[in-house]
Write a structure and sequence with these properties.
Layout lengths: L3 H15 L3 H16 L2 H18 L2 H16 L6 H14 L12 H14 L4 H13 L7 H15 L3 H17 L6 H13 L3 H11 L7 H18 L3 H7 L3 H4 L6 H13 L7 H17 L2 H17 L3 H14 L9 H14 L12 H7 L7 H8 L7 H13 L3 H14 L8 H13 L3 H9 L3 H14 L3 H13 L3 H14 L3 H8 L10 H13 L3 H10 L17 E7 L5 E10 L2 E4 L14 E4 L11 H6 L3 E9 L4 E8 L3 H14 L3 E3 L6 E3 L6 E11 L5 H11 L7 E2 L1 H7 L3 H10 L3
Parallel strand pairs: 1-5
Antiparallel strand pairs: 1-2, 2-3, 3-4, 4-5, 6-9, 6-10, 7-9, 8-9
Helix pairs in contact: 1-2, 2-3, 2-4, 3-4, 4-5, 4-6, 5-6, 6-7, 6-8, 7-8, 8-9, 8-10, 9-10, 10-11, 10-12, 11-12, 12-13, 12-15, 15-17, 16-17, 17-18, 17-19, 18-19, 21-22, 22-23, 22-24, 23-24, 24-26, 25-26, 26-27, 26-28, 27-28, 28-29, 29-30, 30-31, 35-36
């Protein structure tokens, strides 16, 4: 993106502020950070909302900006492929519109389209990418910040096209062109050059190029550290410098949330395990299978293929031969989704040959005793991958072995395989109506995980009524079809379906917005021993939400909670808590509050305008702490427990007013706090020690302070204005409360002048 775009962003934010779109203005500036920092849940809410607002406001550049960063967040760190292609094509088309094409950021549309295509099938889209990127590069010079990004993608496309030497030459030329303009290449372009050298069989030169680029400024500073270390590890492993490669390799917990690193990380790990530098374990195989499943969901077809082969060879090396053969079958099936498949069938055949040449591990005991050996194995140290292989000859014929074998397959990521075996045993070769509850539960779970919904429905049709309704309720819940879940679970309860049916029914009712119904469904558990503590707590939350205080007290008594007797609302003063609530920009906000009952808290901190809650509001909380309570006694004394907010129970009606200015003296500030506390008006400072304002006479930077004061509905804004005027009258530097002054119509000009003079 050209640097001018950031000046435009700042100007657009000011325009939005002045037009009263404060929330939109604030969110706009945070969108790039959301994309780069991995705050994707927030990005997926905020960016589309900004784009929609921009369309309404007829601001096409703003719409492009939001759509670009949202798409970059999808095709960048998350490496989404085919699932993002249509959106990427649409953005590229949008960028060619007459009212968008002059936007300095418009070339970015070609870049993200190339990334989406590379994520889908890099070699398959290589020529298409080269053509589009080449045309875009013809339209921008090295003086544009768009140049490095486009050039980086061009080098990547050349590598995918099998033109490694050309990629090296192009990368070096691009760096020189930038240097000729007095600019430095991005780190990403330097890394692309190193990858091209590695692909060209020049690992020593690749390491030199990587070292040379380490000081380059990255386009994605958040990812630079781990990406550089991973590339360095791959180059060092290629050079046979295994100890150094292991030291450089990012840990699994570092790359685990970053899909674009997975294929490269897995390849590097394969090299390191071959040299004995890293352990090759079943846990590694399970992780790689999860990554393959992720790329299935986002259309990362080439990544699926590469990961399957890598995982297959790792499985051969640890003698998990059944898994290697399944992965070979999987990789072969993926070829149909790839646009370029030359040489791929041969690579699959190579994996199969390696599995066939390897020796099977002998079982730990006689075949007819394997189930007993399985049950006696230490659950912490046993290798489930080996047990799948040992139990396979028994699975499908011996029911006990089949249960253990198929559920272990599901645990390792092969639910469809386990479901097929279990299905044949229970349904095709057996009588489902006569099967035990445990078998039906396990089979249903495997079928749902394998997304074999039609089989679940077929199974339900062959079960007695209670178990039939229960199986369908499980399926509908997994697919978030709440009305159907409620209907099936209600029927299961009516036919004595037990605790699970009641939980399913209550959960579905809650999802449908009927908390009263959800609570009513769980109430019988108070009079029985059927439920567990978690069910009672859930009943407390639901009953609190509908203010059924009698049930809350009864449930609290069942848990042994010391609640004061009475009939009305529970409004006690328990202890301070942190309540986690949603913010308008899609993020979460932590608000200090006082817990007033088993599942209620009263917010204590004033909130900025535009929030859906404020000080004085009573909210329902989920009583399960979001963080573990410290074991250390000293830490526990200062620890304030965080709870998730569930819903608003009773608004307090408070209104917040903003104040801003130079920080007063300690004595002045103490009096300010005392005056507000005496009146019960909550106040909170939102500025930190870095906030500065400008002395109007000397230009000196002074410590500043800003925050919000909340007043209850019984207090008029004019009363707050008068109190603030009185308490700050003798301060060395005045405080401004411009919005409040405008509201009450008193001295607004004075507050405008203070804001301007002090640069507030």
């Amino acid at each position: 993106m050209d640097v001018d775009i950031w000046a435009w962003v700042g100007g657009t934010q000011r325009e939005l502020h002045e037009a009263g779109n404060t929330g939109l203005a604030m969110a706009l500036g945070d969108v790039p950070a959301q994309a780069l920092e991995g705050r994707f849940a927030q990005l997926d809410v905020v960016a589309p909302a900004i784009a929609q607002h921009a369309e309404t406001l007829e601001k096409p550049w703003l719409e492009f900006f939001a759509r670009y960063w949202h798409l970059l967040g999808r095709v960048g760190d998350r490496a989404i492929g085919a699932a993002a292609l249509d959106d990427a094509v649409a953005l590229a088309d949008f960028a060619e519109r007459d009212d968008v094409s002059d936007c300095p950021a418009a070339p970015g549309a070609v870049e993200v389209l190339a990334m989406a295509q590379a994520n889908t099938d890099g070699p398959g889209y290589a020529e298409t990418r080269l053509a589009a990127l080449g045309a875009a590069l013809d339209g921008v010079g090295p003086d544009s910040l768009a140049f490095s990004g486009l050039a980086t993608q061009y080098v990547a496309a050349l590598i995918d096209a099998g033109q490694a030497a050309e990629a090296v030459a192009y990368a070096e030329a691009a760096v020189e062109r930038l240097r000729g303009e007095g600019r430095e290449a991005s780190w990403e372009l330097g890394a692309a050059s190193a990858r091209a050298l590695l692909a060209a069989g020049r690992p020593d030169d690749a390491l030199t190029a990587l070292d040379a680029s380490t000081g380059f400024k990255p386009d994605d500073p958040v990812a630079k550290g781990r990406r550089e270390n991973l590339l360095r590890s791959q180059v060092l492993a290629t050079l046979g410098r295994l100890e150094e490669a292991v030291d450089a390799l990012p840990d699994l917990d570092v790359v685990g949330d970053h899909a674009r690193e997975w294929v490269e990380w897995a390849r590097t790990v394969r090299m390191l395990t071959a040299g004995g530098s890293i352990a090759n374990t079943w846990q590694l195989g399970r992780i790689l299978r999860q990554w393959i499943a992720y790329f299935e969901s986002v259309g990362g077809h080439r990544a699926r293929f590469e990961l399957a082969l890598t995982a297959g060879h790792l499985a051969v090396a640890r003698q998990g031969l059944w898994q290697a053969r399944l992965l070979a079958d999987y990789a072969e099936a993926v070829i149909a989704d790839l646009r370029v498949s030359e040489g791929l069938a041969e690579r699959v055949a190579e994996l199969r040959a390696a599995a066939d040449a390897a020796k099977e591990l002998p079982p730990p005991g006689p075949r007819d005793e394997l189930v007993a050996y399985f049950d006696a194995a230490d659950g912490r140290t046993a290798d489930p991958e080996r047990w799948v292989g040992w139990l396979w000859p028994l699975s499908g014929t011996d029911l006990e072995a089949t249960r253990r074998h198929t559920t272990t397959l599901g645990f390792l990521g092969y639910a469809p395989v386990g479901a097929d075996i279990y299905w044949k045993t229970i349904v095709e070769d057996g009588a489902p109506a006569a099967a035990g509850d445990e078998d039906i539960s396990y089979l249903t779970g495997l079928l749902i995980e394998a997304r074999q919904d039609e089989r679940v429905e077929t199974l339900a049709g062959r079960l007695p009524e209670t178990r039939s309704h229960l199986a369908l309720a499980r399926l509908h819940r997994a697919r978030e079809r709440w009305e159907q879940t409620a209907a099936e679970a209600e029927q299961a309860v009516a036919h004595e379906g037990g605790l699970e049916a009641r939980r399913l029914w209550s959960g579905a009712a809650q999802q449908l917005g009927d908390n009263a119904k959800a609570a009513e469904i769980l109430k019988p558990l108070l009079e029985s021993e059927e439920g567990e503590e978690e069910d009672v707590w859930r009943l407390i939350v639901l009953s609190t939400a509908v203010e059924d205080w009698a049930t809350v007290r009864a449930a609290g008594a069942k848990l042994g909670m010391p609640i004061e007797p009475g009939e009305g609302p529970i409004e006690e003063e328990w202890h301070l808590v942190r309540v986690i609530l949603p913010a308008p920009d899609g993020s979460q906000r932590e608000v200090l509050a006082v817990r007033t009952g088993p599942a209620t808290a009263r917010l204590a901190i004033p909130q900025p305008r535009g929030m859906e809650y404020n000080a004085g509001d009573v909210v329902v909380i989920d009583p399960r702490p979001l963080e573990p309570i410290p074991e250390d006694e000293q830490e526990r004394e200062s620890f304030v427990i965080p709870f998730a907010g569930v819903t608003m129970l009773r608004p307090g009606g408070y209104t917040s007013w903003f104040f801003d200015g130079a920080a007063p003296s300690e004595d002045e500030w103490a009096e300010f706090n005392e005056v507000l506390a005496e009146r019960g008006w909550p106040m909170w400072v939102y500025s930190d020690e870095n906030y500065r304002v400008t002395h109007p006479a000397t230009g000196e930077q002074l410590p500043g302070v800003f925050g919000w004061i909340a007043i209850p509905p019984t207090v008029r804004p004019a009363e707050l204005d008068a109190v603030l005027d009185d308490v700050t009258e003798q301060w060395s530097h005045p405080l401004a409360w411009l919005d409040l002054a405008r509201e009450v119509g008193i001295e607004a000009e004075r507050h405008e002048r203070i804001s301007k003079e002090y640069g507030l």
